[in-house]
Specification:
123 residues; four-stranded antiparallel beta sheet; mainly beta; 0% helix; seven-stranded mixed beta sheet
């Protein structure tokens, strides 16, 4: 199972970007997906979460500006980022909580990380 995140880039303050993250590989179920970010010299922080049922949570610093969504048929989550600010500059990582079905052994829960995509907000 691998996560592929893409959609980062350079955008001016006030602009928008849409990040995508696809879960590739054979899974029994996709349970939840998250977006984290890590700015240079800072710790990784949670940006937004979404369950397969569509329940969402956001960090206070993105509420009203970012929207997370999920396409269960495609095992893909999205992060629509509007009104971007220079402080949003960071590497954005996606993660996924999945259940795998392993022959004979049964079902097990795993957590995977994507490789990160750089978002730079600058004029």
């Amino acid at each position: 199972v691998q996560l592929q995140a893409y959609g980062g880039g350079l955008v001016q303050p006030g602009g928008s970007l849409r990040l995508s993250c696809a879960v590739n590989g054979s899974i029994f179920s996709l349970n939840a997906m998250d977006w984290y970010r890590q700015a240079s010299g800072k710790q990784r922080e949670l940006v937004a979460s979404i369950t397969s049922a569509g329940t969402t949570e956001y960090a206070d610093f993105v509420k009203g500006r970012f929207t997370v969504s999920i396409d269960n048929a495609k095992n893909t989550e999205y992060l629509q980022m509007n009104s971007l600010e220079p402080e949003d500059t960071a590497v954005y990582y996606c993660s996924a909580a999945v259940t795998l079905e392993i022959p004979v052994l049964g079902r097990y829960d795993y957590h995977y990380w994507g490789q990160g995509t750089l978002v730079t907000v600058s004029s």
